[in-house]
Amino acid sequence: MPHSPASTHTRAVADSAALPLPQPTTAVILDLDGTITDSAPAITTSIAEALAACGYRVPDAGTLLRFVGPPIREGFLTFGGVPEPALDGVVAEYRERYRPRMTQVPLYPGVAQLIETWHAAGIPLALATAKLGELARPILADAGLEQFFTSIHGATREDSHDLPGVQVKANVVAAALQGLREAEVDVSGAVMVGDRHHDIEGAAMHGVPGVLAAWGYAQAGEEAGSAAIAEDAAGLARILGLPQAR
């Protein structure tokens, strides 16, 4: 199906490094935080509490928002001022506070309806998140969306502990693609949809073009390398040439 022209819901990205969007789109790989769920309040509140409990200064709201998306260890190390030897303890404090909150998050407008519509139309869907896999599936299930995904993958504890964020994302995208292939899905026209540069760069490492979800938590400049920017769910459907939400 051909792509619709850009509208108020879409923005083309003039980036020669961007992988071109396929025609047609044969599968969609979605990020979770900042793409499906508006999880920042639950995450940033838990981060602030964990830092305070461990004796670290709590960053300002803008800095706390930068934690959302990459692996949590990377966030504490890069933005929280937590030294490497202390990371395990701070991460444990964070997860203790985050788990009771993780399903108490709203969904972005129109995204759940889009997922359900695409599933009904036979468009294979996969989830690829840098969040631990053991956390991602319950969040999808609580939102009533788990059954619409052919392949659901989050980071392993080993990857989250040892690898930089972009590589963690690349590994999760690889797992999602493999899950789709095992379900006999044509991934030649797969597209990644996410709100952070990790999503775009990690997918590109496997030859998968990315669309930036502008409704999420991207910082200025993170659109680099993306094939297009979607302002909302309707714009995303137009970019991918897929049905609008019913």
Automatic annotation (TrEMBL):
GO molecular function: protein tyrosine kinase activity
Pfam families for the chain: HAD_2
SUPFAM superfamilies: HAD-like
GO annotations of cellular component type: cytosol
Protein name: Phosphoglycolate phosphatase
